[in-house]
Write the structure tokens for this entry.
Amino acid sequence: MKNKAAQSKAWATVQIARHPDRPQYLDYVGEIFTEFDALHGDRLFGDDGAMIGGLARFDGQPVMVVGQHRGRSTREKLQHNFGMSNPEGYRKAQRLMAMAERFNLPVFTFIDTMGAYPGVGAEERGQAEAIATSLAQMSSLKVPIIATVLGEGGSGGALGIGVADRVVMLSHSIYSVISPEGCASILWKTAEKAEQASEALSLTADKLQKIGIVEYVVDEGEGAHLHPEEVMQNLKSVLKQALAELTPLDAKERCEARYQRLMKFGSDNLGLTA
């Protein structure tokens, strides 16, 4: 009975993370940052509608902002490819982060994607290479990086902008190597066991904080879609705290701490079933 209740709670979190009225990346940008100026294109192939980034101010301080936007209407969803980035999206993010490093600007990334786009064209243009290059770049970037999971954090598509000094999750967001439906299809040959899979994946913010994958969890009550402005202000406070922790460190210290943060994952047998 206890196991069933735990499964229901995890599955409920998945449903809230996917709620159609949930605030999206550009909603947060408009509330938390000022003077946002989007920059386009990867200078290799084209622009990507799912990955949006540019210069902005955070409490008056110039910063670089990069994130995945899904869209709400059918037209917006098609324009932003449902938040699933092509290789040019990750290469655009790389270009913007290199610019941030050149001008010593902190980087804020916002994750909300089912995963990287798996289409034939994306694979032909080097989807895996683009994500791998992003991981390598972010691992050694000399400026502070703070990543926030807003809704769904799906697989390598999320991790492609998720390597950071500090990772924040909203309390009803999820972060996982695979969707519950995908996991269930592999383990039990049916997506109908997605609820059971959601518990097995330990994809909720509280569990990920417990095992050290994320540093901060922002409480959103019953869901950010119910009181978005309050949640956005709470998130802004956490981002300010995280930036204040990172700013005093010099680049070498920050990169070493980021490396140690990454290397500790899986080093302790903490378990995932509690």
